Amino acid sequence: MKKGQAENLFEVIEDTLEQAKVKKSQIDLIVVGIGPGNFTGIRIGLAATKGLSLSLKVPLSGVNSFQASLYGQNEYKVAAIQAPLNSYYLGTINGDFRTGHTKDSDAHERFASRPKSKKFIENMAKFGADRKCTLSQAIPLYIKAADAKPHNNEFSMIK
């Protein structure tokens, strides 16, 4: 789905639960992707799952993109998530991360990359359900400072 995720999110959730033959009353934990990733998408996901968590009275936890990229495989210890300016965010399954700069061809050879959408979501769900794994708070994972600059408290008044 390229556009309209926010508008269709709850319909997709309902369809997914129906296909899986899971009733809302059977849900005992909600996990949500906390990033790094698309800023708006992560905020929409967090808001939606916070509402679901409150309405269903179940806990909400976060899974970061590194954990979802590395879960279920043993080949790599570090995941590389695409970042701006030909760089990658590098992170481990235990939550250690940093911004790394590497060439595109090197990253896919040396580090795990983010699986395609369905596998990524499956990994996130499996990581969340694996009681041996440590889950994060359901808050955005910001690795770099915001691009926006704060105001300098000087205001011009229009007269």
Account of the protein in words:
This protein has 159 residues and is of the alpha/beta class. It has a domain at 64-132. Helix content is 37%, strand content 16%. It has helices at 5-19, 39-56, 65-70, 104-110, 117-129; strands spanning 30-33, 60-63, 78-83, 87-92, 97-100, 112-113. Strands 5-4-3-6 form a four-stranded mixed beta sheet. The chain has a two-stranded parallel sheet with strand order 1-2. A hairpin with a 4-residue loop joins strand 4 and strand 5. The longest helix has 18 residues, at 39-56.
Structural class: alpha/beta
Helix-residue proportion: 25-40%
Number of helices: 5
Q: Can you tell me the residue ranges where pLDDT is under 50 for at least 5 consecutive residues?
A: none
Strand arrangement, major sheet? 5-4-3-6
**What string, H for helix and E for strand, traces the elements in order?**
HEHEHEEEHEH
Q: Hey, roughly how much beta strand do the residues contain?
A: 15-25%
Mean pLDDT: 86
Descriptors:
alpha/beta; 4-stranded mixed sheet; 159 residues; 6 strands
